[in-house]
Amino acid sequence: MDSIDYYERQGSQYFEETIDLDMTEHLQNFLERLPENAEVLDLGCGSGRDSRCLEEAGCYVTPMDGSPKMCSLAEIYTDLEVLCLTFEEMEFQEVFDGIWASASLLHVASKDMPRILKKVYDALKPGGVAYMSFQYGESEEYRNGRFFCDYTEKTMKKLLQTESDFEILDIYQSDDVREGRPRWLNVLVKKEGGEEDD
Questions:
Q1: How deeply is 132 buried, as exposed, middle or buried, from its count of CB atoms within 10 A (0-12, 13-18, 19+)?
Q2: How are beta strands 184-190 and 167-174 bridged, if at all?
Q3: Residue 113's closest CA among 79, 87, 138, 84?
């Protein structure tokens, strides 16, 4: 189950709808946990909005998206090379200080999440931090042309504690920055190792 076809068809509209959304609060929460000049993967970068913000904050950003259409739009917007890879295709080994996965891993079916989380874990350097966000709830279904897998604090903690080696730093709810939209579950996790753990 994937939603890439949706972004191929609706990419321009999605770009216009999301390019100006303000993610400052979540970005700051993520950035304060990273070293200076961090190497960051924007996993499912969409429009490239957050890639640009992360670069302006001093990070070295690698944007990545599974939709060729979104990759093209993000390259124009960020002036960065965007990797056109699906979650399944990525194979990084301890490359990044941080991974930013805003509203992207929510398209992964629950049965596939342990395997994708392992890829995220492998891509991080020891002590690296990942941010992920999901729509809040317990549904797993197609909605308006895209597949969504929602989580609550309970189901996310169970997933992370049973299917990953991540340390949970924070799990918190937030409102959508657009009125009338579902709430979000925001997740910050850390890979073991790094200076603090030595």
A1: buried
A2: antiparallel
A3: 87
The pLDDT assigned to 165 comes to 95
The percent helix, strand, coil of the chain (3-state, each to 5) is 35, 30, 35
**Quick one: pLDDT at residue 177?**
64
Top-confidence residue, 17 or 111: 111
List, in sequence order, the alpha helices (H) in 57-183: 68-78, 113-123, 153-163
Tokens of 110: 């629950």
Please give the angle made by the CA atoms of 116, 38 and 128, to the nearest 5 degrees.
40
Sort strands 39-43 and 60-65 into parallel, antiparallel or unpaired.
parallel
Which residue type occupies 88? Answer: E
Task: Report, as an integer, the average pLDDT of 105-115.
Answer: 96
Give the residue among 96, 64, 71, 70 at the shortest CA–CA distance from 14.
Answer: 70
Helix (H/G/I), strand (E/B), else coil: 52: helix
Q: Identify whether the C-beta of residue 65 lies closer than 8 Å to the C-beta of residue 13.
A: no
Q: Which two tokens stand for residue 157?
A: 């903690």
